[in-house]
Amino acid sequence: MNKYLLWTSMFILAACSDQNEDLVNWMTETSQQAKTRISKPKEAKLNLQPSYTPPPQPTLNMFDPAKLKVDMQGANAPNPNRPKEILENYPLDELRYVGLIKSTNKSPSAFLQVMVTSIL
């Protein structure tokens, strides 16, 4: 009985060794290929952005008081003797913009509402 058991176990071990040999060969080949395919990462290249240079500023300051005085003389000066328009009779804080009226043949007109805060 022991002989049969010994022969059977040797036969099983011999049969298993052939099947596992293919598996072991495949594992060694795969591990060798995997190690050779690893490459070093490429160095990162920085895209340098051009530095911002602001556009040149005009040499004349448009809010210069001396320039404003020059512009208020001659033909560009307002006429203080002209008759006032209707809306100039009201202070700006009493006027409220409501909308815009456009017609095809005329220039657009603003629609304003006068907020009366004081009773005369």
Please describe what this structure looks like.
- With 120 residues, the protein is an alpha+beta fold.
- Helix content is 35%, strand content 11%.
- It has two helices and two strands.
- It has helices spanning 2-36, 65-71; strands spanning 95-101, 109-114.
- Strands 1-2 form a two-stranded antiparallel ribbon.
- Strand 1 (95-101) and strand 2 (109-114) form a beta hairpin.
- The chain starts with a helix and ends in a 6-residue tail after the last strand.
- The portion of residues forming beta strands comes to 5-15%
The biggest beta sheet, please?
Answer: 2 strands, antiparallel
Task: Count every beta strand, where a strand is a DSSP E run of 2 or more residues.
Answer: 2
Number of helices: 2
Which structural class is indicated by helix and strand composition? alpha+beta
The average pLDDT is 77
Question: Can you give me a brief rundown of this structure?
Answer:
The chain contains two helices and two strands, in the order H-H-E-E.
Keywords:
120 residues, alpha+beta, two-stranded antiparallel ribbon, 35% helix, elongated
Helix-strand layout with pairing:
Blueprint: H1 2-36, H2 65-71, E1 95-101, E2 109-114
Antiparallel strand pairs: 1-2
